[in-house]
Write a structure and sequence with these properties.
Low-confidence stretches: none
Structural class: alpha/beta
Largest sheet: 7 strands, mixed
Distance between the termini: 70 Å
Number of helices: 13
Strand order of the largest sheet: 16-17-18-13-12-20-21
Strand content: 15-25%
Number of strands: 24
Radius of gyration: 23 Å
Mean pLDDT: 97
Length: 483
């Protein structure tokens, strides 16, 4: 791996520039050492980026292209990333903490979004509406214009790719605010945009504090659409600012997702769901399987299996874990690690049983032991609040109605899961679980092709799949009186 450069700039209107708010140190959570410095944008930088993106949009250069041509440019951005997996993945691993093999998966996942939405560009078609004699009526989809995209720190490449690819495929321009904890790898989207020939100003990437750059971006009058993934509190602030300009938002605000495990479930197979559902990316996943709601007759066995999974993981610096296997890296920061550890301690104080892990590791970096909590009840804070860490809470139920009530008993509704051999029971549960996506017998089933988004405080709007495209276009109806 080549040495990472010490200072990274923002990308505005086709140029790499310093930030008006100075610099921020990017910390390697796997060691606690400073990895690099990143330029910080202020409101003036945001204004220049939005102005550039608006200029490109109003020029019509993207909408003048045949959709297939625009789609090919989007696809080429994905190939640019794939060609540089071994260059990008180490940077992502070092800035975010995840194992190197997980970082490779994220780069490949980011490229997949560009492939998928590039292929979809020429399928966004209107329709004709019959109005009887003397009328010809049809619909036409047009891009909103400037798409403001505020990116979370847990999957900085995939989350940016998810929204940027769909925005470009439909003819929008973009201003991306990267997370200050993990901003470095986003620079590759700027390089990709240049490489495929997008005009200067079509893609702008800047890092800044949420209360300064994020607030300026979400309230800017030149922004026509906003995409945000993050906390409920910040999502409310962004939606409030957007409402002042009557701007639509797509908000993905996290979850407290539960998997219902019935008495006939294959618990041996379920161990793999535990591994991926709560310990992948150290549990820092909006749709993590943070709650398992198991039939009381299988509770003890499930906890024993979960403990075995947790204890089987090799935990340490992600950059040292290049081969796919039972490994886990650091959390993104010591502050995030400490918050998760404090929530585990609070759960113990409320009566939960610590079956495995739960403690900060006595090594440099932001490490928390893979954790399993038994004896959790629905009213406990650990069963209601998002931990965003490698902490599995195990609850139990007696009958189907109670299982559904527990699954739906939080303010969130991002994803849910059902594990059973009984297809009728799985179907009933899938119908009753209040969530935007339900997995049956495999956590994280689905893919880029399947719509993703929440109910309740998990937000609104959908990303992924064809359904996401409609967030980036508005419908124009043309009614012609034929004489």
């Amino acid at each position: 791996m080549s040495e990472i450069k010490s200072y990274w700039q923002n990308y505005i209107d086709g140029a790499w520039v310093d930030g008006g708010a100075g610099r921020v140190e990017v910390i390697n959570p796997g060691s606690g050492a400073v990895l690099a410095e990143q330029a910080l944008a202020d409101a003036g930088d945001v204004d220049r980026a939005v102005t550039a993106a608006e200029r490109v949009h109003l020029s019509g250069v993207l909408t003048a292209l045949r959709p297939v041509e625009r789609g090919r440019m989007v696809q080429a951005m994905g190939r640019y990333l794939l060609d540089r997996v071994e260059e990008i993945a180490p940077i992502l691993s070092l800035e975010q903490g995840k194992p190197l093999w997980e970082a490779r998966i994220e780069v490949e996942g980011a490229a997949r979004y560009f492939e998928y939405y590039g292929n979809q560009a020429e399928t966004v078609e209107g329709r004709s509406i019959p109005l009887g004699a003397n009328y010809f009526d049809f619909t036409h989809y047009e891009p909103f214009g400037v798409s403001a995209q505020i990116i979370p720190w847990n999957y900085p490449l995939e989350m940016t790719a998810r929204s940027l690819s769909a925005a470009l495929a439909t003819g929008n321009t973009a201003v991306i605010k990267t997370p200050e904890l993990t901003p470095l790898s986003n620079a590759y989207f700027a390089h990709a945009a240049e490489a495929v020939g997008l005009p200067k100003g079509a893609v702008n990437i800047l890092c800044g504090w949420g209360h300064e750059a994020g607030a300026a971006l979400s309230s800017h009058p030149g922004v026509r659409q906003i995409v945000f993934t993050g906390s409920v509190r910040t999502g409310i602030a962004i939606a409030t600012a957007a409402a002042q300009n009557v701007v639509p938002c797509v908000l993905e605000l996290g979850g407290k997702s539960g998997a219902i495990v019935y008495e006939d479930a294959d618990l041996e197979a379920f161990e793999n769901d535990i591994r991926w559902g709560i310990y992948f990316n150290a549990g820092q996943v909006c749709s993590a399987m943070s709650r398992v709601i198991v039939h009381e007759s299988r509770r003890d066995e499930l906890i024993e299996r979960a403990v075995n999974v947790a204890r089987s993981l090799s935990v340490g610096p992600g950059i040292e874990r290049g081969e796919m296997g039972p490994t886990m890296g650091a959390m993104v920061s010591e502050a995030q690690r400490d918050r998760a550890a404090d929530m585990v301690a609070a759960a113990e104080g409320q009566g939960a049983t610590l079956a495995a892990g739960g403690r900060k590791m006595n090594i440099p970096g932001a490490f928390l032991e893979p954790t399993v909590l038994g004896g959790v009840t629905p009213e406990m804070s650990i069963a209601q609040e998002e931990v965003f860490g490698p902490v599995l809470s195990v609850l139990s139920f007696r009958d189907e109605a109670e299982a559904i009530a527990i699954a739906n008993g939080t303010p969130y509704g991002l994803v849910g899961g059902v594990f059973t051999r009984d297809l009728d029971r799985a179907t009933r549960a899938a119908q009753k679980i209040r969530a935007g996506q339900v997995f049956v017998n495999e956590w994280f089933a689905g893919g880029v092709e399947t719509p993703f988004g929440g109910y309740g405080k998990s937000g609104y709007g959908r990303e992924k799949g064809r359904e996401a495209l409609w967030n980036y276009v508005q419908t124009k109806n043309v009614a012609i009186r034929v004489r």
